[in-house]
Amino acid sequence: MKIAILPGDGIGPEIVDQAVKVLNTLGQSFEMETAPVGGAGYAAHGHPLPDATLKLAKEADAILFGAVGDWQYDNLERALRPEQAILGLRKHLTLFANFRPAILYPELVGASTLKPEVVSGLDILIVRELNGDIYFGQPRGVREAPDGPFKGAREGFDTMRYSEPEIRRIAHVAFQAARKRSKRLTSVDKANVLETFQFWKDIMIDIHKEYPDIELDHMYVDNAAMQLVRAPKKFDVIVTGNMFGDILSDAAAMLTGSIGMLPSASLDANNKGLYEPSHGSAPDIAGKGIANPLATILSAAMMLRFSLNLPAEADRIEAAVKKVLSQGLRTADIYEAGTTKVGTAEMGDAVVKALV
Ligand code: IPM
Ligand code: MG
After folding, report:
1. Which of 91, 301, 314, 344 is the most interior residue, by most CB within 10 Å?
2. What's the predicted TM-score (pTM) here?
3. Residues with CB under 5 A from ligand 2 (ion)
4. What domains can you pick out in the chain, each with its CATH number?
């Protein structure tokens, strides 16, 4: 089994190192090959997603991705910015289904900014569509306004659009995910204002007929944002578009105390996937050895489960992460008085040691 290792920028390399260390301790023979991506790709080959990196990603069975982005690349033209690497991988590999679980480990209940009774026991899953929406819709750009009260003035514009097959395939993924959990699915839209999301809602209702065992409800995105911080445990599986999913998944992440804990999987129709922590490259703490590697280690566990068909090994990693938390080990982002503060590599070593 071949894994493409794409560490990226900022804290990417140091957290990916820890996940690789854990994978290498499982007693499986993985073939791993590393390639530069993001700012590192630009520095090495003049493009955030170099051809050789894309080729490796295409031929691998799964991709372990760190994070991309660094201030030094912020002034490049858009096509060369680090973020284009992840957007390009999602698009070129048709990774349309993004799973972002938000689980609160009991040991971290005090690390959340929300009251313990609001978040304890939280276990929700956001299924975010990743190939469409305003992220990729054409046309887009800056032009002279063709009409309206500011006709002739410069304006920026993007296009929100979703095709029926795109909505259908993410709907099936979400209904099937709900079937494996508590059989409740909330579709988040903005059907009260946007044509795109009235259409989204209509398709969801249609596909629901194929899943009569699942309870489907619909929520406007603004209300969903409010409910996520008011009563997050009312949700189980949420399905939504690319833009709303981007925003809601960051909000959901903070319910769990730290975005440093949250893994994610981005899958194609055959369960080939890219696995990355939900957090970014955090250039402000890069190289300091203090970043939390657990989201990346948990992403590696998702990779074993979804793409490499090694569910028992995935369980072993997740159990090891629970164990280090119960031992009181914490990186700075989840540190509380009375626990033991450790660095990135120490946390990785502790997970290795906790593997049974
Ligand atoms: C995410 C990130 C990306 C996104 C950026 C880095 C392009 O915020 O994975 O949530 O907007 O999808
Ligand atoms: Mg985001």
Report:
1. 301
2. 0.94
3. 246
4. 1-96+268-356 (3.40.718.10), 99-132+162-261 (3.40.718.10)
